[in-house]
Amino acid sequence: MKNSKKVLILTYYWPPSGGSGVQRWMYFAKHLKSLGWEPIVITVDEKQASYPVLDFGLMQETKDIKVVRTDTKEPLKIYAQLLGVSSKKSIPQGQVNREGWFSKTAAFIRGNFFIPDARKGWIPYALTEAKKYIRKEGIQKIITTGPPHSTHLVGLRLKALFGLQWWADFRDPWSDIFYNKDFYRTSWAKKKDIRWEQKVLQNADGILTTVGGSLVQKFKINAPDQKFYVLPNGYDEALMSSIPKTKLNIFHVVYTGLLTDNQDYIPVMKALNDIAEHRTIRLSLAGNISDHILENIRKTAPKMELDYKGYLTHKEAIALMKSGDLLLNFIFRGADQDMISGKLLEYLASEVPVLSIGNPQSEAGKLLNLASFAQMIDAKDNHAQKSFIQEAIQQKGKDRNTMPDIQKWSRENIAVTLSNLLDKG
């Protein structure tokens, strides 16, 4: 028996996986359920998954969602274990390590043999469970989300088998994502990746993206007749309002999230160090940040207090944001036009001033321009960076960063838009 209110969601990342990528569909599933849908999530067994970080606090958000966990084979993980290194180091987050023979070899293998990605070993397991639940539950609507974009290949197969309504969600670009250039990819590998991407774009019933602009225009080249819908990453309005603002006596700068060599963080550290000659500044960092990045910051800004808190739960990260006088953000080089992180919207919802480093004309830059005390500044414009920081110091405790109609960016309201799309489809 067909059930029009059941929706099957296939996502590799799911609590207890931590980080920002997991939160999009975790919240969508939660809010879809409150809107009368019955989401069923197929994901990977966390004991077998390659999750860079874990956040068990997120599992509270999904306690009422039916979740099916499957086995998987992680080819790159097995390869790394054979060579006696950490599998997590072999799977890129924001950058690709190409130092030394092993890293170069791993990058080449990843870029040429694991197409579209190193999680492709999950495909047969996800497909088996999806077919079982589609038949058992009478499901007529499915959603796949990537990265990993190999998840979309499951949707492609299910569409061919059952002719159901399939939505493909792109949290990031696919074949031209910024770090692919570091994988020593052959022309054969590039063409194969693009062919898979084209098949998904052309065969899905609709494409969801986190950002419009250039990303959608690129996709339209290969799928001119496809329907595209922008559903931004949002913020958890209930969580944000439940955490009070706190302030330190000193000027408190906060950064949360992944920080890599592929982000231009050094110029801001120089600016902060110059200003720290005349006043006390503390920089609090939270997230997956390597020792050598921390050491670079210490060397660049020795006059500034540095407080590295490691990985925090989502709730703890929000509390840290709301204790700041200035929030920092660094766009990945090459990702200016195609990505707006959920963290950036959480920053704006916190009402703390935001300084982001990247292309001012990017989609993220245009978003920040809507706020009263936020700006995207080019990495080379040290004068503008320093001026923004000094203004934030002068306005400490006096001004807040307001965003017009910020409520429309809440995850709950965005889920209403998603629900309407599913109803119409």
Describe the protein's architecture and organization.
Residues 82-95 have low confidence and may be disordered. The chain is of the alpha/beta class. It has helices at 23-34, 75-82, 100-113, 123-137, 150-162, 187-203, 214-222, 237-242, 266-275, 291-300, 314-321, 342-349, 363-369, 382-394, 411-424; strands spanning 3-10, 38-44, 66-70, 139-146, 165-170, 206-209, 228-230, 251-256, 281-286, 305-308, 326-330, 354-357, 374-377. It is globular, with a radius of gyration of 22 Å. It contains 15 helices and 13 strands. It has two domains: 3-234 and 410-424, Glycogen Phosphorylase B (Rossmann fold), CATH 3.40.50.2000; 237-404, 3-Layer(aba) Sandwich (Rossmann fold).
Short characterization:
39% of the residues lie in helices and 16% in strands. It is α/β, with parallel strands linked by helices and 425 residues long.
Output the number of helix runs. 15
Reported for the largest beta sheet, the result is: 7 strands, parallel
Structural class: alpha/beta
The CATH topology of the largest domain corresponds to: Rossmann fold
Report, as a whole number of angstroms, the end-to-end distance: 19 Å
Largest sheet: spatial strand order: 3-2-1-4-5-6-7
Query: Quick one: overall form?
Result: globular
Strand tally: 13
Mean of pLDDT:
89
Known CATH architecture of the largest domain: 3-Layer(aba) Sandwich
Q: Low-confidence parts lasting 5 or more residues at pLDDT below 50?
A: 82-95
Q: What fraction strand? A: 15-25%
Taking all Cα atoms into account, the compactness measure Rg is: 22 Å
CATH superfamily of the largest domain: Glycogen Phosphorylase B
Number of domains: 2
Spell the H/E element sequence: EHEEHHHEHEHEHEHEHEHEHEHEHEHH
Helix content: 25-40%
CATH structural class of the largest domain? Alpha Beta
